[in-house]
Amino acid sequence: MNRRDFLAASAAAATLPLAPASAEDKPMLPIVDTHQHLWDLEKLKLAWFDPKTPEGKVLGHSFTPTEYAEATKGVGVVKAVYMEVDVVPEQQQAEADYIVELCESKKTPTCAAVVSGRPNSDGFEKYAKQFKGHKYVKGVRQVLHVKETPAGYALEEKFVKGIKLLGDLGLSFDLCVRPAELPDFVKLVDQCPNTRFILDHCGNANLKHTPAERDQWKRDMAEIAKKKNVVGKVSGFIASAPARGKWTVDDLAPVVNHTLDVFGPDRVMFGGDWPVCLLGVEKYADWPTALKTVVKDRPEEQQKKLFHDNAVTFYGL
């Protein structure tokens, strides 16, 4: 499913029905949000965004650090890693410059960034080399789960060369992919053993998958998790729920638990996917609260790794 269809189909997900607070309730663990989006539509043009679509009613305005601070108030977010927002290619440098300046200001939780890039583009080597050893830019992402991405794209020689370059530069690459193409990315990872990868959104697991599709996703996730240079991110799959108000913690648990089980407690991180998550939840807090409920029976040390420690280690925060 491409990003536009993914979002349009997912005016999704819902508010979590929460039990009344009790004295035994533990406070939310400190959070490093590894998937924070910000955009100013007066300055940036997003390649995927169409204000005429249903998601435009939710996302069709600017989302700034001020709004993020308000959205995460009281949730426990102590640091955030900016995630590129799929700007048009000619604005990639401007986006990177903006987020580096924000990190340097130290006025917000945003302390690191994954910037946009096209590994198979002619100018990619020059563009990427500026981030070697960068204090704030930790990696690159290209959104690949769009209909414009042809089958087999990630295995083309020029693309693979760009991904290998990232490893040489000490930069990671985020995999934002169509679930059915996970086997291609296993092959990509095998060809780039010196590059670190992050698999976004639990491999874009879809809550509307048929049992057969879910079984295939589980097998493919288990296979890519065998690759020790890949970490998983529990993030924006919540937007694939069939409709607002139609998901429960029990719907989320199989995806979260399988991801945690195959990657292990040391290789999974939480990502808020704000503001895109607002297509599926009424407020930011609903998503980490739901996840906290899913993992409540796991050891507290593992919960801390998921919400905080693994991100600090992986990104060197």
What does this structure look like?
This protein is α/β, with parallel strands linked by helices. The protein is built from 12 helices and 8 strands. It has an 8-stranded parallel beta sheet. It is globular, with a radius of gyration of 18 Å. The two termini are 33 Å apart.
Can you summarize this structure?
Helices cover 37% and strands 14% of the residues. The chain is α/β, with parallel strands linked by helices and 317 residues long. The protein has an 8-stranded parallel β-sheet with strand order 1-2-3-4-5-6-7-8.
Distinctive features:
single chain, 317 residues, alpha/beta, TIM Barrel, 12 helices, 37% helix, globular, disordered N terminus
Biggest β-sheet description? 8 strands, parallel
- By DSSP (H or I, 4+ residues per run), the number of helices equals 12
The rough form would be described as globular
Q: Which band does the percent of strand residues land in?
A: 5-15%
Radius of gyration: 18 Å
Q: Which sequence of SSEs, written as H and E, runs from N to C?
A: HEHHEHEHEHEHEHHEHEHH
- Structural category is alpha/beta
Low-confidence residue ranges: 1-24
Q: Number of folding domains?
A: 1
Which sequence of strands runs across the widest sheet? 1-2-3-4-5-6-7-8
CATH topology value: TIM Barrel
CATH superfamily heading? Metal-dependent hydrolases
Cα(first) to Cα(last) distance is 33 Å
Q: List how many beta strands DSSP finds.
A: 8
Average pLDDT rating: 88
Give the name of the CATH architecture: Alpha-Beta Barrel
